[in-house]
Amino acid sequence: MLRLPAFRLRQPTSLAEACRILSGEGPAARVVAGGTDLWPNLKRRNQKASTVISLARVPELAGVRAGGEVRLGAMETLADLERAPALVTRYPALARAIGSISSPVLRNLGTLGGNVCLDTRCTYYDQNEEWRRSIHYCMKAEGRICWVAPSSPRCWAVQSADSAPMLVALDARVRLASSAGEREIPVAALYRDDGIDYLAKRPDEIVAEVALPAESDAAHLRTAFFKLRRRGSIDFGVLSVAVALRTEGGRVTDARVVLGSIASFPSPAGEVARALIGAPLTTESIRAAAQRSRAAATPMDNTDFDPRWRGQVTPVYVERTLRAAAGLDAADGA
Amino acid sequence: MEPETAVRTLTVNGEARTVAFPVHHTLLEVLREELGLTGTKHGCELGECGTCTVLMDGRAVLSCLVLAAEVEGREIRTVEGLQRGNELHPLQRSFADLGAAQCGYCTPGILMAASALLAANPSPTRAEVRAALAGNLCRCTGYQKILEAVEGGAALARGEDWQPAPESLHGSPLPVPEER
Q: What is the C-alpha separation between A193 and A23, in angstroms, rounded?
């Protein structure tokens, strides 16, 4: 049986109290939202926690506020958000990305804030204690070596949060709260290209809210999301593609193409975006631009499927996602 | 670390039960170990298999990923609380009549996930049933009878007369050999 390790539980009833407890406890404390990522990681002893601070009773983190921009409380469940009218009508590709996370029974617990902070994943890390001990662990937890790239000085674990690439493509912002105050940064600036130190937020900061700009909604952008995985019913992705295109007079004036589940952070495929800008959304221009995604994707042997194959199919799925955003094909997959 | 003990009043199957348990124990552990409700099964314990599914305020959730100390004030329903008095829940009837279980280990979780679906959507399509059960793994049946049984349970719950199709129970008749 996989029991959780013993910890002290704190259940604050306001954001200020949660921040105060977190700064007082220091980095040995962990914050829990839905628990769908932290509990498995604690059960497998991937992570440690002397104190767990639950955000379940913090009222400031609940709710969807839709005005010009749409602000999503970090404790909103994935199940509520995939059906939230403000997302379904104005940010449909984000609703789709959120709906592609794991399974319905998990989305009833998992939260947006938790997904945004999802721990990076790797074949050599997402294993139980005994399995990892048998290989003397890896550098992400307790070991010294990266088994994916043994001569590498860094960890290559993959960022698989499905909301992340879409939030980056939509130019979303995240509000971070701490006892020292609050700040709002682009979601793109929340992630670092490192499998271990993968979030740019400080350990005493809590993800409080995600803000979607009015200029990124369906009235302004053509968007699409695609997720490649072994089983459509539940699995983590091995590649996701988030696309947001602005067009004027039939030509692309701005483009964001962000790849997920392929590196330690949601990776912008800048070459693809540059190739699209100024071009009409035709079969030919989309195919030519999608070909340039091959360079942005260098999958490692750290998740499901052959890494070479994942690299080879990246342009195929970038092309399909661009075609869906352009309205040339119906969106499918995910 | 000396485990911290929590004392909470949990509402399980309509009954308020005050229980003491280690604060780091999951709802699954407290249901089975403190409350003796072993109908909810222990599977992967990582949120991947769905056999520990229970209802929390009417929503199907994975009890292996919920801390028992957090559910005070929430309405928990397990497979033991599915029937009403001596009447089986329509899904329990359809699963039993059709034989939609083999080893049966996934059945409690599937009944709970399916009951949440029917409460929200009394006439789900096959695609909606499949989507609602996407997080519930079955390694025996191949899912065919489970999907049929959920549709049968939905029909019974709507007050319709439902019988398992003979070919679902006995298989299709063998082809008659041609006369030589």
A: 25
- Which 82-141 residues of chain B touch chain A by CB within 8 A? 113, 131-132, 134-136
Per-residue pLDDT of chain B (180 residues; tens, 9 = 90+): 778 999 999 999 999 999 999 999 999 999 999 999 999 999 999 999 999 999 999 999 999 999 999 999 999 999 999 999 999 999 999 999 999 999 999 999 999 999 999 999 999 999 999 999 999 999 999 999 999 999 999 999 999 999 999 988 888 888 888 877
Q: Which of A103, A129, A230 to mutate to test the interface with B (most CBs of B within 10 A)?
A: A103
The answer to whether residues B102 and B151 belong to one domain is yes
Interior CA angle at A80 toward A60 and A226, to 5°? Answer: 120
Tokens 């407890």 — which residue? Answer: A21
pLDDT at A296: 82
Given a cut of 60, is residue A101 above it in pLDDT?
A: yes
Same-domain pairing of B60 and B99 = no
Last residue of a domain, one of B81, B103, B126: B81
Instruction: Say how far apart CA B112 and CA B80 lie, in whole Å.
Output: 10
pLDDT score of A331: 62
Angle, vertex CA A235, rays to CA A103 and CA A158, nearest 5: 125
Q: What number is the ipTM of this complex?
A: 0.94
Domains along chain A with CATH numbers: 8-56 (3.30.43.10), 59-117+158-214 (3.30.465.10), 222-326 (3.30.390.50)
Q: What is the C-alpha separation between B146 and B96, in angstroms, rounded?
A: 11
Residue B176 resides in a domain: no
| pLDDT, tens only, A156-190 | 999 999 999 999 999 999 999 999 999 999 999 99
Residue A334 has pLDDT above 60, yes or no: no
Question: Are A273 and A171 in contact, with CB atoms under 8 Å apart?
Answer: no
Chain A residues with CB under 8 Å of B49 CB are none
Q: What is the DSSP string of B40-94?
A: SPP--SSSSS-TTEEEETTEEEEGGGSBGGG-TTSEEE-GGGSSBTTBPPHHHHH
CA distance A2 to chain B (A): 7
CATH of the domain at B134: 1.10.150.120
Partner residue facing B134 (CB), from A7, A36, A233: A233
Is residue B174 assigned to a domain? no
Tell me which chain B residues have a C-beta less than 8 angstroms from the C-beta of A39.
26, 47, 64-65, 67
**Closest-approach residue (CA) in chain B for A40:** B46
Is B139 domain-assigned?
yes
- Chain A nearest-CA distance from B174, in A, is 34
| Minimal CA separation from A327 to chain B, in Å | 25
